Amino acid sequence: IVTPVPVPTAFGGVDHCMLLTFHDQTPLRRVEEMRADFVANASHELRTPLAALSGFIDTLQGPARDDAGARDRFLGIMHAQATRMARLIDDLLSLSRVELSAHVRPDALVDLIPIVRQVVDGLEPLAAERQVRIEVELPQTPVMICGDREELLRLFENLIENALKYGASGSRVVVSSMMDVSLDGAPEFRVAVRDFGRGIAPEHLPRLTERFYRIDAGDSRAQGGTGLGLSLVKHILNRHRGRLLIESVPGHGATFTAGFPPAQAVSRPEV
Ligand code: ADP
Q1: Distance between Cα 162 and ligand 1 center (Å)
Q2: Does the structure show a pLDDT above 60 at 265?
């Protein structure tokens, strides 16, 4: 369920802010519809690059057979399409793996800080390409949570990569953290990823974590997006008893904040 709540935002106001908490109350019929939609969407997403590949193969076997320049150009495009299909399949598999284990809580004690740092380091080449400076404001001391390292890497990869993709080229992305209390008064460790790009209009906020939901499909594809990243983020956070806060002032940027119960607080009863 999506709960619009007046919480203080990174922008100092309470506008355009959406807190997503994950208590599934979806009726069975709606679940069936969503499943059918998902299969239709996934098939469509895979068909598009596949159709492009078939088209180029036909052209290479026919009109472009003896044109070396065209062949090289087409092979480059085919390679990009094949990469896109591979990424989509990877994301679909990750999503189904996380969904299947939704009710099993990850139980390894992990320090969040080196995980976030590793993701930032791995994304430096993309940041350089986009001419974006990543500023990191994280504590020097460990922050332990009960988690799954690989899933947490995926989660922060998605959030920081989105900030680099949809943030303004030539600007900065700030990755910061704070210890606070959640709405039910329990301690919560938060990692916020803030960009200074085009931001997100309020009507899109409640749907952003739906599978294949994109504000601008062409834009997302041009950036190599599959439309599954935030859905994966939602499911990973759900499994970690976490929550996602999305804040944005359109035209000024967006902040995605992941909140986690620290390890010592995990044994509190489920709400
Ligand atoms: P994608 O693979 O398309 O990036 P995501 O699930 O990660 O898929 O994001 C869904 C959509 O949310 C994106 O297509 C984009 O329209 C929007 N979005 C995500 N992050 C941001 C951001 N930081 N700023 C603006 N829009 C964003």
Answers
A1: 6
A2: no
Q: At what angle do helices 68-100 and 229-239 cross, to 10 degrees?
A: 20
Pocket flag, ligand 1, residue 200 (CB < 6 Å): yes
Supply the residue whose CA is at minimum distance from atom 19 of ligand 1. Answer: 162
- 248 close to ligand 1 (CB < 6 Angstrom): no
pLDDT per residue as tens digits for the range 78-95: 999 999 999 999 999 999
- H/E element holding 134? strand 133-137
Question: Are 195 and 253 a contacting pair, CB within 8 Å?
Answer: yes
Do residues 158 and 230 lie in contact, with contact meaning Cβ atoms separated by under 8 Å? yes
For residues 103, 104, 107, 113, the Cα torsion angle rounded to the nearest 10 degrees is -50
Give Cβ neighbours of residue 50 (< 8 Å, ≥ 6 apart).
85
Judge if ipTM > 0.95. Answer: yes
* pLDDT > 90: percent of the chain: 68
